[in-house]
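We emphasize that the prediction below concerns an isolated chain of 127 residues; any contacts that depend on oligomerization or on bound cofactors are therefore not represented. The input was used exactly as deposited, without trimming of termini.
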Amino acid sequence: MAYRLKEAEFRAIAARVLDGLPDEFRKRMKNIVVVVEDYPSVEDAADAGIARDELLGLFHGVTRLEQEWSGGAPNQLPERIVLYKRNIEAICSTKEELVEEIRLTVLHEIGHYFGLSEEDMEKYENG
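Result of the prediction step, given as a token string:
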């Protein structure tokens, strides 16, 4: 059974995850926002190659590494990490599971922002 939270509490958990990131990441994060949506669009799920009801989060934008190589763009819109609230809730049956899944999803998408490999992301997700 899905464990549900009010959107404000869900966002607060995501914010705590961001606040708890290692300094090596927080210091390099620029012009990025985390947003919460109920479900991914059909197009976003298709682009990610993941079933719409299984996609938990998605990074939209240019990786930090690409920004650093290109010198960045002034007045650029923020890069976005989207968390899909209903999909994350659907796989959790307790608040503890939900908090952990939000943590893992945020870390995974931040890994995409930094251009990390799946193996590198696993190291941080498990640490």
